[in-house]
């Protein structure tokens, strides 16, 4: 079996499962789940209980994410959104709170890192305030379970009354540069899931956003279903929890959204209410009128599916400015009101949907997913991994990576000309979109047989989990003749410097999305200077923003990057010419 396992620790050194489960049981016995205003208003003990009530009543639910970096701004945002929607005759059931990435780091290490653009809690009282502002249930995903601080954050969230906590997928893709504590992180991950499992009868649910993990990097939707089964196997069968998957950011095909939702229902052994369906952000750009069209397209599909097969997933209207900046509360309200109209019109469409065909397509994905799941589990067993040990499985899966998993165990037919050597059973929307954009760019460039970048070595990577832009740039410059060295996602500055030296490249093209463009660019240039790497050309694209000057909301930092000497043109049509000028 030709599999490279890039281990960062010896998985055999993890404590045995009995010890992990015992520790989790002890921790869980020392506290109880808090009560939020939402719980009091609706007479429920958990979000899952509320969702089951809504399913029985035939009512849809809605969700939004708030990501401001101070409690005062977050508290005011809660009030503005809730009261604004109430005045508009609308509603919202849950609010996801985006914690800053340093919240995923143990407190004793936080002073080593630059905070990003999101919320940081210092005390349990600050955590508790989440559910005491308005009667909307708080949800916690980013930098909770899967981070270096999984146990502490999970306990704090439960004590605050938050009963849907994630994000399991981030264990595989989010990194904390400068802290090599992977053994500790994996043990923490297992314990946090097991703590949630201790409260499953009280309604505690494990949120897992496929788009934030390997799900964003698979090319075949059937393999993605198989990956979701692997996550369920680890969290449910081995650690005893209950998983609520999320997806949608990377699903541009509206019908595929419905098909995938049905497939997720088919593999949900315990009938756990879903988390929320992310809005499609692939189609969002700077053209607000087009964003309106995207909002209506995906939300209508999500609504129709929940009307026919109610499974507890909340609809998530993405504000129209999402691709431009961190949206304001007023822009969130606007998106919700637009989706309310979709809810009014959806019944006219639902009865004409060919549900037999939808379910048939879903069954194809599930069949492929089952094969992928079995192939991976059997391979791990052959490699000597204990397939009944949650930590050993997760650690090795992370060390193998999504590309190798898909190449080695994917269910598509083999084809040497396909992107990963296989023709997908059903390609993901992101692969369809990447192919379309890069084909359009290349057709406009009209490269000769010998491209303008022939002989040049170019390093590419993404500062976070999002690889959409990176993949487009990589494929375009490869077509232009460059030798491309792809560092993947969530790259560290040290990794960039080492690769530049090893490859002899003088160009690094970086994608970024998570509101840290200026800090990352600045730290990168300092590191390159310290390593005596002169004449290196840095290009950054994506969402070039960050909170600066005490702002609660990230602002565009393109000009600041340019002042430092970083190319921030953010234009795929000109990138080949720009790189060629460095030849």
From TrEMBL:
Alphabetically, the GO molecular function entries are: cobalamin binding; metal ion binding
Residue ranges of domain B12-binding in the record: 453-583
Q: Kindly provide the name given to this protein in its UniProt entry.
A: Methylmalonyl-CoA mutase, cobalamin-binding subunit
């Amino acid at each position: 079996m030709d599999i490279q396992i890039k281990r960062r620790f010896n998985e055999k050194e993890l404590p045995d499962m009995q010890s992990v489960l015992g520790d989790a049981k002890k921790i869980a016995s020392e506290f109880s789940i808090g009560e939020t205003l939402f719980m009091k208003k609706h007479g429920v003990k958990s979000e899952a209980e509320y969702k089951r009530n809504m399913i029985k009543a035939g009512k849809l639910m809605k969700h939004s994410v708030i990501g401001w970096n101070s409690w005062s701004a977050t508290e005011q945002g809660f009030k503005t959104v809730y009261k604004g929607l109430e005045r508009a005759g609308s509603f919202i059931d849950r609010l996801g709170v985006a914690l800053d990435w340093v919240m995923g780091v143990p407190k004793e290490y936080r002073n080593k890192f630059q905070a990003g653009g999101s919320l940081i809690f210092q005390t349990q009282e600050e955590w508790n305030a989440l559910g005491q502002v308005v009667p909307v249930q708080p949800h916690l995903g980013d930098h909770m379970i899967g981070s270096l601080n999984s146990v502490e954050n999970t306990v704090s969230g439960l004590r605050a009354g938050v009963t849907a906590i994630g994000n399991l997928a981030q264990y595989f893709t989010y990194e904390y540069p400068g802290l090599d504590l992977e053994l500790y992180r994996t043990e923490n991950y297992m314990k946090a899931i097991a703590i949630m499992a201790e409260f499953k009868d009280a309604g505690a649910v494990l949120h897992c956003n496929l788009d934030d993990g390997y799900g964003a990097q698979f090319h075949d939707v059937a393999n993605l279903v198989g990956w979701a089964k692997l996550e369920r196997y680890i969290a449910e069968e081995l650690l005893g929890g209950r998983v609520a998957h999320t997806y949608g950011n990377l699903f541009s095909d509206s019908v595929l959204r419905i098909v995938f939702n049905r497939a997720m229902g088919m593999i949900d052994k315990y009938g756990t209410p879903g988390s929320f369906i992310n809005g499609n952000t692939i189609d969002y750009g700077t053209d607000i009128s087009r964003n309106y069209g995207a909002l209506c397209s995906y939300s209508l599909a999500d609504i129709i599916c929940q009307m026919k097969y109610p499974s507890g997933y909340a609809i998530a209207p993405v504000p129209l400015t999402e691709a431009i900046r961190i949206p304001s509360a007023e822009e969130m309200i606007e998106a919700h009101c637009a989706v309310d109209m979709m809810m009014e019109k959806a019944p006219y469409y639902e009865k004409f949907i060919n549900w037999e065909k939808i379910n048939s397509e879903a069954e194809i994905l599930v069949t492929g997913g089952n094969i992928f799941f079995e192939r991976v589990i059997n391979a791990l067993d052959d490699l000597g991994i204990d397939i009944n040990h949650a930590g050993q499985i997760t650690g090795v899966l992370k060390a193998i990576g999504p590309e190798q998993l898909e190449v080695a165990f994917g269910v598509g037919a083999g084809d040497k000309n396909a992107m990963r050597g296989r023709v997908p059973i059903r390609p993901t929307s992101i692969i369809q979109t990447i192919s379309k954009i890069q084909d359009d760019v290349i057709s406009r460039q009209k490269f000769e047989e010998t491209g303008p970048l022939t002989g040049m070595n170019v390093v590419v990577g993404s500062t976070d989990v999002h690889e959409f832009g990176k993949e487009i740039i990589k494929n375009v410059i490869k077509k232009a003749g460059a030798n491309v060295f792809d560092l993947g996602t969530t790259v560290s500055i040290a990794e960039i410097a080492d690769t530049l030296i090893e490859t002899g490249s003088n160009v690094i093209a970086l994608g970024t999305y998570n509101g840290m463009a200026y800090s990352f660019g600045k730290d990168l240039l300092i590191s390159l200077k310290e390593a005596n790497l002169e004449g290196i050309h840095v290009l950054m694209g994506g969402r070039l923003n960050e909170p600066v000057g005490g702002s609660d909301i990230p602002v565009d930092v393109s000009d600041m990057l340019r002042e430092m000497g970083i190319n921030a043109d953010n234009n795929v049509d000109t990138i080949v010419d720009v790189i060629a000028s460095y030849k």
